[in-house]
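Quick start: what a row looks like.
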Amino acid sequence: MLQSIRKNSSLFLASLVFCFVSVTILCWFWISPSLRRDDAKIESLGVFAITNGDDKYWLELMNSIKSAQNQPSDDAKVIMDSKAVEALKNEREKIIKYGGSDKDPEHLGGFVTNDTDTYERELWEWIIGVFNISSIMDVGCGMGYSTQFFKKYLNAKWHGQENVLCVEGSKDAIDQSLVPELSIHHDYAKGPWWPDAIFDMVWSAEFLEHVDEEFMNNYMATFKKAKLILVTHSVWGGWHHTCVHDSPWWIAKFESFGFQYQPELTEMARQHCPMAGDRLKYSYHDVTAQGHRKMSHFQRHGLVFLNRLFLRHFTLFDQMLFQRIAESPSFW
């Protein structure tokens, strides 16, 4: 009797296993074709998302792509065929427009009108207060949105005794400048430039990556006329991003020119570029639906340097000695 029950139980279990396997196989052959993402399915999904804008995933993917020719990233190419890639490229070219694109030489890189990703009012107010800054040179200033802020802020702080200068390579940006009286038009691919005055600080956002490395000497000559240097650099492609490197590369380059990297000051400066919604002090930022800031170039890739030329104070004797050397080349 007991042996018969055991035999029946074994048969029952075997039947259950057989049924389960059979149902699984049937599901695979009948249902899975609709779920499999072959090339045709990927193509239609990609184009549908691009043309109709209904697929959040594809829109996020499109917005995340950054390269020199507005081409999709390698990750995107893995899951998209050539037709979807081309459609995505064309859509991005409709969205992304740069000032100067139809007027300036391509190597100047263009400029974005009122780019809030580089507008760091909280950082500027903090750094000006910490170092009691009274003069600022804005290198790669575009139309001069940041320069305009420096002018107004320093004018109020120093009762009209501010010294602000905007240096820009795009003729289109200079023609539309908010501060034409403070703007210098200079293309660093054509040679160096430096002002007569010495500045407390240089601000240069999204400029370095647009200038070929062979012309680095030209803008470093400009930076030499400032005591404190705040710069950003790109780590991805873009229109004429010909000098794209990580921070250690830029730190080594700047230090080879005599500037001293300030890691702690850099970290403090980045902390004054808030990203979380509850820390946003001003309303000009481009934010997400949750109220968080979308991007801050300095918070991600900003660096602070001190100019070694100004690390020591000169006595009156030093100044008189240098003046005498300058007046008498045969002094030695």
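That is the whole record. Residues 5 and 173 are 91 Å apart (CA to CA). Residues 30-55, 64-78, 92-96 have pLDDT under 50 and may be disordered.
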